[in-house]
Amino acid sequence: MSTKYRKSDIDELHQIVNFFKECEPNTILTESMYQWKYVYNPVGLSRVYFAEDENDTLVGVYSIIPWKFIVNEEIIEGYQAVDIMVHPSQRGKGTIVGLSKYIFEDLKTTTSPFILGFPNERIYPIHLKVGWKSLGTFETYVKILRVNKYCKRLETKFTKPIFSIANNILK
Questions:
Q1: What is the largest CA-CA distance in the chain?
Q2: CA distances in angstroms from 118 to 58, 79, 138, 152, listed in the order given
Q3: How far is the C-alpha of 165 from the C-alpha of 129, rounded, in Å?
């Protein structure tokens, strides 16, 4: 199979959301969420890249969003790798490796000196394979403010009292 790589166009938004839903049926991604994150990002328009097979069928998506970082008191524009998806039938066939190399070449035309990523356990070895460097690990903290707000879809007759108690304890 011959895979082609390219930067997507903004009018291909519906393809991206449909692709994610096809690959991960339980995804919560909607067109409005995608637009908010990628099109109306206050830092700038995101870059989304496609991998397509010989029939121009979408087989992979790799999204990066712009960020502004302060390094030595200077504002530097970089990117963060965020949503990466490969069709289940294409996993393990080098799609992400090819997309990564294509993206790295494309970003050479920008002033951005780096891409930041927080890979999950599936993508981590692939990131290392294409030249990402690990800067180590860091602790993550969270303060839960309202339990019930985020647990509504999990709520049952059994869990409702537990969420209520948890919500009162966290006040």
A1: 57
A2: 24, 12, 11, 28
A3: 47
Q: How many residues does the chain have?
A: 171
Distance of CA 163 to the CA centre of its chain: 30
Type of residue numbered 171: K
User: From CA 103, how far away is CA 15, in angstroms rounded?
Assistant: 19
Sheet containing strand 4-7, edge to edge, reads 4-7, 47-52, 58-71, 74-86, 115-117
- Which two three-digit tokens encode residue 93? 């066939």
Cα separations in angstroms, 79 against 51, 76, 110, 124: 20, 10, 11, 17
Beta bridge partners of 47: 64
Q: What share of the chain is helix, strand, coil (3-state, %, to 5)?
A: 35, 25, 40
> What is the Cα–Cα distance from 39 to 168, expressed in whole angstroms?
38
pTM: 0.77
pLDDT in tens, the chain (171 residues): 689 999 998 888 778 888 999 998 888 888 888 888 888 888 888 899 999 999 999 999 999 999 998 888 999 999 999 989 999 999 989 999 999 999 999 999 988 888 988 888 888 899 899 999 988 877 777 776 765 555 555 555 556 666 566 666 655
Q: Give the pair of three-digit tokens for residue 33.
A: 């969420």
